[in-house]
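Example 4.3 (complexes with small molecules)
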Amino acid sequence: MPQQQNKINYQKELEKVLDKEKERVPTLLLHSCCAPCSSYVLEYLAQYFSITVFYYNPNIYPEAEYEKRVEEQQRLIREMNAKNQLALCTDDRQEKKASGQNIKEYHEIRFLAGRFDPQEFYHAVKGLEKIPEGGERCHACFRLRLAEAAKIAKEGNYDYVTTTLTISPLKNAEALNVIGREAADACGVAWLPSDFKKKNGYRRSVELSAEYGLYRQDYCGCVFSKQEREASK
Ligand code: SF4
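Answer. The structure with iron/sulfur cluster bound is encoded below.
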Protein backbone atom coordinates (compact mmCIF):
# COMPACT_ATOMS: atom_id res chain seq x y z
CA MET A 1 0.00 0.00 0.00
CA PRO A 2 1.38 3.44 -0.87
CA GLN A 3 2.37 5.62 2.06
CA GLN A 4 -0.40 7.90 3.28
CA GLN A 5 0.36 11.57 2.82
CA ASN A 6 -1.46 14.70 3.96
CA LYS A 7 -4.78 14.85 2.19
CA ILE A 8 -4.18 16.35 -1.23
CA ASN A 9 -6.94 17.72 -3.43
CA TYR A 10 -5.87 16.21 -6.75
CA GLN A 11 -8.51 18.11 -8.71
CA LYS A 12 -6.88 21.34 -7.53
CA GLU A 13 -3.47 19.92 -8.49
CA LEU A 14 -4.82 19.23 -11.97
CA GLU A 15 -6.19 22.77 -12.23
CA LYS A 16 -2.74 24.14 -11.39
CA VAL A 17 -1.29 22.20 -14.37
CA LEU A 18 -4.09 23.44 -16.66
CA ASP A 19 -3.29 26.99 -15.61
CA LYS A 20 0.44 26.50 -16.13
CA GLU A 21 -0.13 25.05 -19.61
CA LYS A 22 -2.77 27.49 -20.82
CA GLU A 23 -0.57 28.92 -23.60
CA ARG A 24 -0.06 25.59 -25.39
CA VAL A 25 -1.72 22.24 -26.10
CA PRO A 26 0.41 19.52 -24.45
CA THR A 27 0.16 15.85 -25.41
CA LEU A 28 -1.39 13.45 -22.94
CA LEU A 29 -1.35 9.66 -22.88
CA LEU A 30 -4.57 8.81 -21.06
CA HIS A 31 -4.79 5.28 -19.74
CA SER A 32 -8.46 4.28 -19.90
CA CYS A 33 -10.22 1.41 -18.17
CA CYS A 34 -13.48 1.66 -20.15
CA ALA A 35 -15.60 3.94 -22.31
CA PRO A 36 -18.04 5.09 -19.57
CA CYS A 37 -15.22 6.18 -17.22
CA SER A 38 -13.37 7.92 -20.04
CA SER A 39 -16.41 9.84 -21.32
CA TYR A 40 -16.31 12.70 -18.82
CA VAL A 41 -12.50 12.74 -18.76
CA LEU A 42 -12.38 13.15 -22.55
CA GLU A 43 -15.07 15.81 -22.55
CA TYR A 44 -13.17 17.69 -19.85
CA LEU A 45 -9.54 17.30 -20.96
CA ALA A 46 -9.85 17.40 -24.77
CA GLN A 47 -10.25 21.16 -24.37
CA TYR A 48 -6.71 21.39 -22.98
CA PHE A 49 -4.70 18.44 -24.32
CA SER A 50 -4.02 16.52 -27.48
CA ILE A 51 -5.11 13.16 -26.07
CA THR A 52 -4.24 9.61 -27.01
CA VAL A 53 -6.35 7.05 -25.18
CA PHE A 54 -4.20 4.09 -24.19
CA TYR A 55 -6.15 0.89 -23.65
CA TYR A 56 -4.03 -1.49 -21.62
CA ASN A 57 -6.19 -3.66 -19.35
CA PRO A 58 -4.99 -7.28 -19.17
CA ASN A 59 -7.01 -7.58 -15.94
CA ILE A 60 -10.32 -7.87 -17.80
CA TYR A 61 -12.07 -11.23 -17.73
CA PRO A 62 -13.27 -12.97 -19.86
CA GLU A 63 -11.80 -12.16 -23.26
CA ALA A 64 -15.26 -11.50 -24.73
CA GLU A 65 -15.75 -8.81 -22.08
CA TYR A 66 -12.40 -7.29 -23.04
CA GLU A 67 -13.43 -7.19 -26.71
CA LYS A 68 -16.74 -5.56 -25.82
CA ARG A 69 -15.07 -2.87 -23.69
CA VAL A 70 -12.36 -2.06 -26.20
CA GLU A 71 -14.90 -1.76 -29.03
CA GLU A 72 -17.03 0.59 -26.92
CA GLN A 73 -13.95 2.68 -26.19
CA GLN A 74 -13.16 3.01 -29.89
CA ARG A 75 -16.78 3.81 -30.78
CA LEU A 76 -16.94 6.53 -28.12
CA ILE A 77 -13.79 8.18 -29.47
CA ARG A 78 -15.11 8.07 -33.05
CA GLU A 79 -18.43 9.56 -31.99
CA MET A 80 -16.91 12.25 -29.77
CA ASN A 81 -14.52 13.29 -32.54
CA ALA A 82 -17.39 13.39 -35.05
CA LYS A 83 -19.52 15.46 -32.66
CA ASN A 84 -16.70 17.92 -32.04
CA GLN A 85 -15.94 18.15 -35.75
CA LEU A 86 -19.61 18.83 -36.49
CA ALA A 87 -19.68 21.54 -33.84
CA LEU A 88 -16.63 23.13 -35.46
CA CYS A 89 -18.38 23.15 -38.85
CA THR A 90 -21.73 24.43 -37.64
CA ASP A 91 -20.75 26.85 -34.86
CA ASP A 92 -19.91 30.42 -35.59
CA ARG A 93 -17.13 30.00 -33.01
CA GLN A 94 -14.75 32.64 -34.24
CA GLU A 95 -17.48 35.28 -34.13
CA LYS A 96 -18.55 34.18 -30.66
CA LYS A 97 -14.95 34.21 -29.45
CA ALA A 98 -14.38 37.65 -30.90
CA SER A 99 -17.42 38.88 -28.99
CA GLY A 100 -15.84 37.59 -25.76
CA GLN A 101 -17.96 34.46 -25.26
CA ASN A 102 -16.31 31.47 -23.60
CA ILE A 103 -16.18 28.92 -26.45
CA LYS A 104 -14.64 25.50 -25.90
CA GLU A 105 -12.31 24.07 -28.55
CA TYR A 106 -11.86 20.30 -28.53
CA HIS A 107 -8.74 18.62 -29.88
CA GLU A 108 -8.94 15.40 -31.84
CA ILE A 109 -8.72 12.27 -29.68
CA ARG A 110 -6.61 9.31 -30.81
CA PHE A 111 -6.58 5.67 -29.74
CA LEU A 112 -3.71 3.31 -28.97
CA ALA A 113 -4.26 -0.35 -28.07
CA GLY A 114 -2.01 -2.03 -25.53
CA ARG A 115 -1.31 -5.78 -25.32
CA PHE A 116 -3.96 -8.11 -23.98
CA ASP A 117 -2.10 -10.84 -22.12
CA PRO A 118 -4.08 -11.86 -19.00
CA GLN A 119 -1.03 -13.69 -17.65
CA GLU A 120 0.59 -10.29 -17.00
CA PHE A 121 -2.29 -9.53 -14.63
CA TYR A 122 -2.32 -12.93 -12.90
CA HIS A 123 1.43 -12.69 -12.38
CA ALA A 124 1.11 -9.16 -10.91
CA VAL A 125 -1.60 -10.13 -8.39
CA LYS A 126 -0.23 -13.56 -7.45
CA GLY A 127 -0.98 -14.28 -3.79
CA LEU A 128 -3.44 -11.37 -3.57
CA GLU A 129 -6.35 -13.05 -5.36
CA LYS A 130 -8.57 -13.33 -2.28
CA ILE A 131 -8.10 -9.76 -1.06
CA PRO A 132 -11.39 -7.87 -1.49
CA GLU A 133 -11.78 -5.15 -4.08
CA GLY A 134 -10.15 -1.90 -3.01
CA GLY A 135 -7.19 -3.58 -1.27
CA GLU A 136 -3.66 -4.57 -2.16
CA ARG A 137 -4.74 -6.63 -5.19
CA CYS A 138 -6.11 -3.47 -6.78
CA HIS A 139 -2.92 -1.54 -5.97
CA ALA A 140 -0.89 -4.24 -7.75
CA CYS A 141 -3.33 -4.01 -10.68
CA PHE A 142 -2.93 -0.20 -10.79
CA ARG A 143 0.87 -0.57 -10.65
CA LEU A 144 0.88 -2.96 -13.61
CA ARG A 145 -1.32 -0.78 -15.81
CA LEU A 146 0.21 2.57 -14.90
CA ALA A 147 3.79 1.31 -15.27
CA GLU A 148 2.97 0.25 -18.82
CA ALA A 149 1.22 3.57 -19.53
CA ALA A 150 4.23 5.53 -18.23
CA LYS A 151 6.63 3.43 -20.33
CA ILE A 152 4.58 4.00 -23.48
CA ALA A 153 4.26 7.72 -22.68
CA LYS A 154 8.04 8.00 -22.37
CA GLU A 155 8.65 6.06 -25.59
CA GLY A 156 6.09 8.21 -27.42
CA ASN A 157 7.52 11.44 -26.01
CA TYR A 158 4.22 12.52 -24.46
CA ASP A 159 4.17 15.56 -22.18
CA TYR A 160 1.93 13.90 -19.56
CA VAL A 161 0.50 10.55 -18.57
CA THR A 162 -2.53 9.81 -16.39
CA THR A 163 -5.51 7.46 -15.98
CA THR A 164 -9.31 7.67 -16.02
CA LEU A 165 -9.47 5.38 -12.96
CA THR A 166 -9.82 8.21 -10.41
CA ILE A 167 -13.35 8.88 -11.65
CA SER A 168 -14.69 5.79 -9.89
CA PRO A 169 -16.17 6.38 -6.42
CA LEU A 170 -14.90 2.85 -5.62
CA LYS A 171 -11.26 3.69 -6.34
CA ASN A 172 -8.87 5.45 -4.00
CA ALA A 173 -7.62 8.59 -5.76
CA GLU A 174 -4.77 8.98 -3.27
CA ALA A 175 -3.44 5.48 -4.00
CA LEU A 176 -3.85 5.96 -7.75
CA ASN A 177 -1.99 9.27 -7.76
CA VAL A 178 0.85 7.97 -5.58
CA ILE A 179 1.25 4.82 -7.71
CA GLY A 180 0.87 6.75 -10.97
CA ARG A 181 3.43 9.35 -9.99
CA GLU A 182 5.93 6.66 -8.92
CA ALA A 183 5.51 4.92 -12.30
CA ALA A 184 5.83 8.21 -14.21
CA ASP A 185 8.90 9.30 -12.19
CA ALA A 186 10.56 5.94 -12.85
CA CYS A 187 10.18 6.53 -16.61
CA GLY A 188 10.98 10.26 -16.56
CA VAL A 189 7.57 11.48 -17.74
CA ALA A 190 5.24 14.00 -16.05
CA TRP A 191 2.29 12.60 -14.13
CA LEU A 192 -0.97 14.52 -14.50
CA PRO A 193 -2.68 14.44 -11.09
CA SER A 194 -6.43 13.91 -11.04
CA ASP A 195 -9.50 13.13 -9.03
CA PHE A 196 -12.06 13.06 -11.82
CA LYS A 197 -14.96 12.24 -9.54
CA LYS A 198 -14.72 15.80 -8.17
CA LYS A 199 -16.79 18.53 -9.84
CA ASN A 200 -19.58 15.99 -10.44
CA GLY A 201 -17.34 14.07 -12.84
CA TYR A 202 -18.85 10.70 -12.01
CA ARG A 203 -22.39 12.00 -12.44
CA ARG A 204 -21.47 13.54 -15.78
CA SER A 205 -19.97 10.20 -16.92
CA VAL A 206 -23.33 8.54 -16.21
CA GLU A 207 -25.12 11.22 -18.27
CA LEU A 208 -22.64 10.86 -21.14
CA SER A 209 -22.92 7.07 -21.04
CA ALA A 210 -26.68 7.45 -21.54
CA GLU A 211 -26.18 10.04 -24.28
CA TYR A 212 -23.81 7.78 -26.26
CA GLY A 213 -25.66 4.57 -25.34
CA LEU A 214 -22.51 3.06 -23.80
CA TYR A 215 -22.31 -0.44 -22.39
CA ARG A 216 -21.83 -0.13 -18.60
CA GLN A 217 -20.43 -3.25 -16.98
CA ASP A 218 -21.48 -4.12 -13.41
CA TYR A 219 -18.07 -5.31 -12.18
CA CYS A 220 -14.63 -3.71 -12.16
CA GLY A 221 -12.97 -6.08 -14.60
CA CYS A 222 -11.04 -9.07 -13.23
CA VAL A 223 -12.41 -12.53 -12.55
CA PHE A 224 -12.18 -11.88 -8.79
CA SER A 225 -14.29 -8.72 -8.98
CA LYS A 226 -16.78 -10.61 -11.16
CA GLN A 227 -17.03 -13.36 -8.54
CA GLU A 228 -17.45 -10.77 -5.75
CA ARG A 229 -20.23 -9.05 -7.68
CA GLU A 230 -22.01 -12.33 -8.38
CA ALA A 231 -21.77 -13.36 -4.72
CA SER A 232 -23.28 -10.04 -3.60
CA LYS A 233 -26.26 -10.35 -5.96
S1 SF4 B 1 -11.08 -5.26 -8.78
FE1 SF4 B 1 -10.53 -3.94 -10.54
S2 SF4 B 1 -8.74 -2.74 -9.86
FE2 SF4 B 1 -9.00 -4.47 -8.44
S3 SF4 B 1 -7.69 -6.09 -9.24
FE3 SF4 B 1 -9.72 -6.45 -10.12
S4 SF4 B 1 -9.72 -5.35 -12.07
FE4 SF4 B 1 -7.96 -4.59 -10.91
